[in-house]
Amino acid sequence: MRFVLQRLALFVVTLLGVSVLVFAALRVLPGDMAQLMAGMNSTPGRVASIRKSMGLDRPVFEQYTGWLWGLMHGDFGMSMLTGRAIAATVKTRASVTFPLIALGLLAAMVIGLVFGYEATMSHRPAVRVMFHLLALVGGAIPALWGGLLLILLFSKGMGIIGLFPSQGFPASGWRQPVQALSSLALPALTVGIIDGATLMRYTRSALTELLSSDVIAMTMASGYTRRQAMVRVGFRLALPQLVSVTGLLFASMVTGVMVIENLFALPGIGYGLVTDLGNRDLIAVQSELFMLAAFFLFVGFIVDVIHRLLDPRMRHPEQEG
Amino acid sequence: MLRGSHGPISFGVRFEKFRACHIIVVAVDPSGGEHLAYQLIMAKSAALEAVALPGDGEPWTGLARRNMASTQGAHDFDGATTNRGVSNRKRGNESLTEGHVPASMDPALQARARHELPTYDVWKSNHKSKLWVLAIMTMVVAMVVLAFVRPPARGGDGRPAGFQTQSAQRVSIGLKLAPANLDIRNQSGSSLDQVLIGNVYEGIVARDSNNKVVPALAKSWVVSNDALRYTFTMNTGMTFSNGDRLNAEDAAWSVNELVKRGYHDAQLLKHFESAKALDNSTLQIVLTAPYSDLLWVLTGRPGLVFDRHARYDMKTQAIGSGPYTVERFVPNSSLTLVANSRYRGPYRAKTASIVLHYYNDDNAAINALKSGDIQVLAPITQSLSGPFDRDSTNYDVKVGEGTDKFVLAMNCKGSKTSDVRIREAIRMAIDHKAIVASRGGVDRLMGGPIAPLDPGYEDLGARVSHTDVRRAAKLLKEAGYDRQNPLALRLEYANIYGTELGDQLRSQLREIGINLQVHVVEFSTWMQDVYTNKNYDLSLVDHNESHDFSQWADRGYYYNYDNPEVRNLYDQAMSATTEARKSELLQRAARVVSSDSPADWLFNYRITTVMRSGVSGFPINMNQALMPLWNVTFTHE
């Protein structure tokens, strides 16, 4: 409990720091939203009036405290550009990004765990080397290139085997579940292959370490085959480590899928962030970045808690000596 | 010593074959030498436990089963010290398949091994394994279903295709620049004009595909002899999409609000005095001085008519009188238009619903077209349109006229570019034909500031059709620079135009001794550095506006260009009372500007549009500025 409270306090302090950092970083960026909105051929008077209507003429400190006050009340503000509540916009975007991440993570886990397991357990050195190479190559593929390759292979219209749409998300979103899901298939696979390779390397190293440990020997002495020992006991012991990696992978995917979202024209969080930044929609960008930072920290916090739940040794480190 | 000999043990069971031998492997593993004794004890005790297995008829427990397995291992280990173990080793892997090798010399255990030990069954033995296998199988099945059992091919209207020729109820169009909101009164950007004017909002007057003024909400107009009074006769029986009636009062209110509140493009309404409704169907606009561009200006944002009674958030909604209404708008992503059921004018929508998709990435847009997600793509990069051009049975590729001018501005007050010799040298050194050819060869050489379709246009392309590197180098030398002492210039432009143009210019200008540093930046950064602060040497922008000669007569514009003769000619043109006179004056002014070389006009960009065969009525000319969609249909098999 003390641990949780400590972590929570750290969470709040870090968030405050993040808010200052995000706010300051955006203020030093070149470019003026009012000028962008007024466009070329506009008069200086018009730019000034837009700036005033957006509250950009107020002192910076006042702008910051106003924003922070809103955040404390759960109000992320309205986008100056789109006139929509930022929380609602992020929610809409998250309905694309999170399913994409979930599917991508699923693919990554299937690829990473199964292949990582085989890479460790196979008796043929050739097979082990092959999996090792796969992990290296998979991890080295740039997301953009991997995605393009999958488009060329499996997209409707362009691909050799036209299975999935390669572009966009249905305008009505998840109300068309089949279309929505199939439009996420290729992006998720791209993410899955690349992150699966990372996960595969972690799985492999975690299992290899276990394989030479007493635990597996002990388990096998109790009557399991090597594979069973690994699946039932080994994986369980490797779990805390894999949960950490998967947690971090999950968090990094939120922005990591930015490239993928751009390639597949998916209106997700990363894609939206890039667009908003390009438009200098300051309140939107700062609230979105703040939410992302909070999310990262939250995932880290959850991973730590799960870690402790899974691994009793961490709960009483002093007793371990 | 037994490491790797996995063969000898077999119960004729699929999942068990490695079980016992692994214990041996571990037990004799040299690296685990200190554990050897422990392993041996474990194996032995397991064997002992196995002896105490429940008898026939007694229920098997999981423990018992596991013990049995251990037993085999233990016995095998025991056997390894015997001749049998050796013989098993000799047999190697053959025994794996045979499944009849005695697991033990103990007849009782052997008997169990053959007959009583239940088959290890992954479905029954372990709940967790079962879940795993189930999960994996479900996923495989789901993927197969998703991959192969797809819904039948559908046409754009959502009905199964392939029965007969029919008009689609929905047409999807791919575009490039997306609006961030729908507030056409405040938000700049041609993407809003493109989508909303003529489709959702209508103006007092409109433009045809040749950029000429045609009737819209006003069916006719009369201009007084002194060109100060414009009297419009409005159509009758018009309504907004919310049901409110539209009359001259709304038109007068809209124009007055624009001027009063300084909405976007209000500055275009020069010499404006007042707008008033003489009656329900007569609108009069009064000017303080003649302004020959007034009618054309009213075809754009200043002439749009809004509902003076409606209260709505203009950023997210649009209530107009056009043939379409906005059904759904996802900023930067898509916009869905549906036919306005209250529309009674001549441009009634022929297709019930039109979805506009925005693609930042050219490849993404092309993928969407090929896969049938969209039926029209405007624009397509000309150099990527080849495959569609060749596939004429499925696609139509059309090139339209536009008013886009790719302007390489040269800061007339820049520390180096204020020297006209340097500016002229740059113009001479640029190989315009090569640039146009590299873009697909359809763009037009310009040589001057006015595009075709705009008043005052004349073909000044000859001015830039010959590249004269020697003369350019000579001019530059006069200015004090050559290849040994190169002139360093900075070119800054927005990343929406790609990097190729910058690279081409850099390599072409290197020939005469200009070291061009190319900075491709975000549009907002460009706005600040170049447009607002005028802190630049060279800048590149696609000026897609029409009737925009005023830029060259505005001393405060970012070009920093000032020529009183040009200003005078422009002023005269704007107060001309006939189109012919206006064109003639603008033509003269354009020639002067071109000879002063405040910029180089790289080319007039012509828009390439690709459509699926069966699409008709889509505007080809100027479709990035105005894109009336009422006439669009898609007929498919």
UniProtKB/TrEMBL annotation, chain A:
MF-aspect GO terms: dipeptide transmembrane transporter activity
Keywords: Cell membrane, Membrane, Transmembrane, Transmembrane helix, Transport
Membrane topology type: Multi-pass membrane protein
Subcellular localization(s) per the UniProt record: Cell membrane
Cross-referenced Pfam families: BPD_transp_1, BPD_transp_1_N
Entry's Gene Ontology cellular component terms: plasma membrane
InterPro entries reported for this sequence: BPD_transp_1_N, MetI-like, MetI-like_sf
TM stretches of this protein: 66-86, 98-117, 129-154, 242-269, 289-310
Presence of keyword Transferase: no
Domain named ABC transmembrane type-1: residues: 94-307
Family: Belongs to the binding-protein-dependent transport system permease family.
Protein name in UniProt: Peptide ABC transporter, permease protein
Protein's organism: Bifidobacterium bombi DSM 19703
UniProtKB/TrEMBL annotation, chain B:
One example of a Gene Ontology biological process annotation: peptide transport
SUPFAM superfamilies reported in the protein's UniProt record: Periplasmic binding protein-like II
Segments forming domain Solute-binding protein family: 212-545
Spans through the membrane: 131-149
Source species: Bifidobacterium bombi DSM 19703
Full protein name: Peptide ABC transporter, substrate-binding protein
Chain positions covered by the region annotation Disordered: 71-101
InterPro entries the record matches: SBP_5, SBP_5_dom
Domain of life: Bacteria
Keywords: Membrane, Signal, Transmembrane, Transmembrane helix
A GO MF label: peptide transmembrane transporter activity
